[in-house]
Write the structure tokens for this entry.
Amino acid sequence: MSAHTESYAPVFVGKRKDELAALLTRYPTKMAGLLPALWMVQQDRGWVSEQAMTEVASVLELTPAYVKGVVSFYTMYHQHPVGRHFIQVCTTSPCLCNGADKVVNAFLEHTGCKELGITSADGKYTVIEVECLGACGFSTPVQINADTIENVTPDKVPVILAGLK
Amino acid sequence: MGYPQKSHPRETPVLSKHFGEGESRSLDGWKKRGGYKALELALQMTPAQIVDIVKASGLRGRGGAGFPTGVKWSFMKPGDGKPHYLLCNADESEPGTFKDREIMRWTPHALVEGCAIGAYAIGAETSFIYIRGEFQEPIDRMEAALKEAYAANILGKNAMGTGKTINVYVHKGAGAYICGEETALMESLEGKRGNPRIKPPFPAVSGAFGQPTTINNVETLVAVPHILVNGAEWYKAMCLSNPKSTGTKLFSVCGNISKPGNYEIVLGFPFKDFLYDLCGGPTAGRRFKAIIPGGASVPIQTVEEAEATLMDYEGFVAQGTMLGSGGVIVFDDTQSIPRQVARLTRFFAHESCGQCTQCREGTSWTTRILDRIVAGNGTYEDLDTLLEMAENMTGKTICVLSDSCAAPVVSGLQKFRHEFEALITGKRSSTVAGSQLAAGSSKLTAAGTAA
């Protein structure tokens, strides 16, 4: 084992281990526990590291490469650390035609993020564009971590940011 | 009630009747509104009886394809000794569509009940509701409702005291539009990348975990309890045009329109009245230019086509498009059609799983060419190339994502070619009134390349 791996504190111990075991009873295969297990990792650690993928692989009897292949398919698993407030602005057609691009710019400006996907220097914010959030009648919807905020316009951005802990 | 808009008098709220009422979310509140009576009835019937009622009602899939639900259920053979699965497709990601979101947020028990009935009807002991990962609030609402339903012994090993096992679980997606494709959803549920499967075998033969599986949309399943309580004839009688399209349907409306939101109407309702009366028409001083009536995957309609449409499965086809998921995206005269088409194809390029060459290459090249045109660097040859590519992207891949990407390109070029040409010839973009450009466009076409 490399020094890297030794310093890694596993996610699936104690309560988390039991939670995953209980969840696995729902499915006929261990592999089906992969997406839920990755969610648990991300909830606890904020992102899914290579070491975490290796741990998940071992817990679910898969290979690390397989797990990485799955992680990389889905947009919501972070493969690197992100800002404490992960801000996703929907810019798909229905939102675009109501000015979503201006909402994106307002978030970039007020968070100090230099560009999309690059975390602000203080580590607080990461802003990305996201494809359809499924809230098209409330354009522009913005998702900050797990919360969706409806009807966001550029002028509301400073207030929204001020309200974040 | 209705949410976000109050119900319009011309709506027929069946599924959306309790949208906006907080109380409808709890088990007690739901029971007060007649909840779980249908499940009680269902568990006293045989699965075959339920399937027959649903067949007789004429209910068709509300997720996009419009396949008759009872017929789909009849492909399952209860008692064949295999575990069966009912999957509920709550991966609502079709741009323009946000109805399942509101169903789950306001009436989560309606979906629990629909899943339980559906599972029993197809001989399944387990149902998974696959909800897109971004829908954290709907996920929380569904989890809370399931917890109540288990605690009240509505679900579990002795569902409603009948000795029957019915389990319903939520499975959270992780960000992938393609997982709304039924076989991709199954792959994802199994813990794999969401690559659609080649069919056959069809899900009823080999679906989730290689077992017989039925997959239904959220809106389809929540209609079932109403059908069981009120009868197939009641449902069938809700029909304003073609007898093959029965019942009510939720339409999500967004884009450039006065009152965006969800509206529930009886199928066959005139689209013109819907757009101008229910949804309040265009915003002040504007006029409609184009409408995508069934989510981003269906062809674009002109305003004239939309105004002549009767809103049912056949009515949309008769006017050059499809009902799809019922996600109505409206563009007004401030919008550039080439820019919007480019944005739509970018969406599909982003969401392509990359298995099939036509889709992997086609979606991204189409987007690059469209971006070039929008930037003012396009040529007439580009328009021919786009159409040629669209042809190669249609009907040639494992799933229909590629076809969906081609739809706005082909319909956009057919119906709004003058806007693309204006960008090529260096005229101002397509927000200029269509008629002036259209007049010039025939000359441009003749001078340029053949259409």
Chain B is about 45% helix and 10% strand. Residues 72 and 214 of chain B are 7 Å apart (CA to CA). Confidence is low (pLDDT under 50) at residues 429-451 of chain B. The two ends of chain B are 50 Å apart (CA to CA).
